[in-house]
Amino acid sequence: MTEKISSKQFLVLVFMNLLGTSIVFIPSIATSYGQENGWITVLISTIIGMVLILLFNATVSNDDTLDFFSAIDQSVGKIIGNVIIGALIIFAYYTGIANIWALSEFVGLQILMGTPPAAIALISTMTSLIAVRYGIEVIARSIEIFFPFTILSLVLLALLVWPEARLENIEPIMQLNKMSTVIGAIPLVGMTFLEVITLVIILSSVNNRKDGKRAFLYGGLLAGFCMMIVTFASIAVLGVQGTVRHTYPIYVLGQNIRIAQFFERIEVLVAFIWFFTIFFKIATTNFIIVKAVQHLFKLKRHQSISIPVSFLLWTGSVTSFPNVFYDFEAINSTYLVLGFIVGFLIPLFIVVSKKISQLRKT
Amino acid sequence: MRIFLISIITVLLLSGCWSAVELSDMMLATAIGIDYHDGKFQVTLQVINPSEIAANQDKANRTSVTNYTVEADTFFEAIRRLTATSPRKLFLSHIRVVIYGEGMARRGIADTLDFLMRDHEFRSDFVMTIAKDTTAKKVLGIVSPLENISAEKIYTSIESSEKFWAPTKEVKLDELVNAILSDGKQAVMTGVFIRGDAEKGSTLANVETQDPYATIFVEHIGVFNEDKLIGWLNEDQSKGFNYITDNIASTVGRLIWQDGRYIVLETTSSSTDRSVVIKDDEITITVSVESTANFGEVNADVTFQDQAVIQEIERYAAERLNELLARSIAVAKEFETDIFGFGELIRRDYPHEWEAKYKENWDEYFLTTNIKIDSSVRIEHGGMITNPLYDELIHKQRE
């Protein structure tokens, strides 16, 4: 049984996966590099991201009958293919635990104060387990339902903080810190666009693959745009210092909504964006790991290993991070290297080996 | 099996109740006062007395709020130590104002800011103020008429006086920290002070008379150098400060017309443009104010038939405004701190020069900058009557 999703659903899925977690961390990371040009850093990383997505698209063949795994096995051989899929699993696992951990930290700190992060992580992982057992079709359909809410929350956030924005905070535009503005795009790409390499596995479930590839690009573009707007708003409202200093600037942004003395204290709006995007990111990542493991061990049903994978994700998220500050260190070192290898070198290798085998044939 | 699963799922839902606190088990704090006393932080917390706030209930003869004061070596310790004197756990999310005693502000406030930003219970929407000439403890001790909670009174006073009277500024935590950390701007905070008898004012008797023994006033702007209070702007200078930083919503200003008679103008809107030119190492900053005003009170010998008269008043008002602004700037130069953020203006317009030269010693360069002030006032409305009453009165007297 092969599951099929529409290209529109895939677009929304890409959007959610890109915004998950990153939407709360990106403003402060981008601003810490680019200072008042932080939003330009996001813009640059979006451009790089577009190129990366083109690369990801190139790894998937246009042949609708071939799924991603068998296509890899065909183009690079079984052994190397398995190594590549193994690397993808490790990367997806790392992304998964990082996201579950980030969600539990945030909720434990800001919303359910005092609740141990492990409990929150358990609930979110187990919920994603249910999603995984239903399969990608159901995940995609529910994302489609929640997408309007997410967009609405984002638009509301951007509009409602506008009265508090001071445009002089973003001046001078591209005069100082030019180098770090550009360099800052690298860790940003690392925690956004390199992560979505794993979505190529789902790309082969899109019923029209050509449309799916276009949806991949558009989804990336839309997410990049949203991240840029949020970063811009953070800098304009909180100032450079305020954006860099806060762990979750977007949440503080929500706290700054204050219209006509009565429309205030609605920062939970931000929590909506955050919940929806990160939950679907966790669910998708979980699903991808399960699918890839299913292929590696040639299992009949992916449901058979969904429970152990979920528990591994949960324990990983609880035990892997010593404290909050490790997060930023990892984004700039370990995670970046892993992301670069899996998200850039591997797709490049696949594309090149594909080209070579094509040349050999002709 | 099914029952087993359902019970597990139900248990999962309980995780939200992990650190549940009932409303009746906590105290809502509305204000924090921070003083420095014998090398220790003296923290005063004002907490709401819920039964006195609730409407439609027989009120006992108690104040609506209670203040707790403790001393400790650090700010956070002081707040936690409060639980030793207070009956319940403190809840800090509803803080409206943070008040520094003048002594504390002069000593430096840097070591209180980290906790205010870091602790997750705080929301950063409270107003930061200084208790002028007194301690925060005393200010919070005043029982305020009309508004039961004095923290709420201070908050709303600052808000409304900034809007309608001008010589105050609502400074939030973020803004304060940004200003303290910025190279091209110094911080300011509005002062609150007690007028009257503070001793009597801290008893319930204060609200039992029509003429309270003591009231809390919100006025004057405190000038900072880095994190230390170094002086105060008086009422006019504070107003000038708000004109220069484009923070005027509405205000009232008096013009002395002939023979000591006066015209009072009500400013209805004002916008300020600031620009900077650096030429041959000489910095020239132009501040141009455009404000619109109405006649609020006319007690001078003028008639408004002639446009020339109106124009003359406009010109005269603009001159006065120029003087007002110039005095504020002169005072800031006396204090040697750039509270107007002219440095940030230079950073925006001349980023490379700023990084290379001015950034390090901006306060020194600030003293030598030329600041041109160019105001214009436009009079629009005259209220419900046309010519002033004074005009007819004086003629009657002459007869």
TrEMBL record, chain A:
Entries under Gene3D superfamilies matching the protein: Amino acid/polyamine transporter I (1.20.1740.10)
| Keyword terms, alphabetized | Germination, Membrane, Transmembrane, Transmembrane helix, Transport
Some GO term, biological process aspect, for this entry: which one?
spore germination
User: Which Pfam families does its entry note?
Assistant: Spore_permease
Q: What membrane topology does this protein have? A: Multi-pass membrane protein
- Location(s), subcellular: Membrane
Keyword Transit peptide found: no
Q: Which InterPro entries match?
A: Spore_GerAB (IPR004761)
GO cellular component, alphabetical, reads: membrane
Q: Which domain of life is it from?
A: Bacteria
What parts of the sequence cross the membrane? Answer: 12-33, 39-58, 79-101, 107-131, 143-162, 182-203, 215-240, 271-293, 305-326, 332-352
PANTHER family registered for this protein in UniProt: SPORE GERMINATION PROTEIN A2
Name the family the entry cites: Belongs to the amino acid-polyamine-organocation (APC) superfamily. Spore germination protein (SGP) (TC 2.A.3.9) family.
NCBIfam families membership: 2A0309
The name on file for this protein is Spore germination protein
Automatic annotation (TrEMBL), chain B:
Q: What is its main location?
A: membrane
GO CC, any one term: membrane
| Every Spore germination GerAC-like C-terminal domain range | 221-383
Q: Which Pfam families does this entry report, sorted A to Z?
A: Spore_GerAC, Spore_GerAC_N
Q: Keywords in UniProt for this one? A: Germination, Lipoprotein, Membrane, Palmitate, Signal
Q: What's the protein's topology in the membrane?
A: Lipid-anchor
Q: Which InterPro entries match?
A: GerAC_N, Spore_GerAC-like, Spore_GerAC-like_C, Spore_GerAC_C_sf
Positions of the Spore germination protein N-terminal domain: 20-190
Biological processes annotated in GO = spore germination
Output the Gene3D superfamilies linked to this UniProt entry.
Nutrient germinant receptor protein C, domain 3
Q: In which compartments does the protein localize?
A: Membrane
Task: Provide the family line.
Answer: Belongs to the GerABKC lipoprotein family.
Q: What is this protein called?
A: Spore germination protein KC
Q: Which organism is it from?
A: Amphibacillus marinus
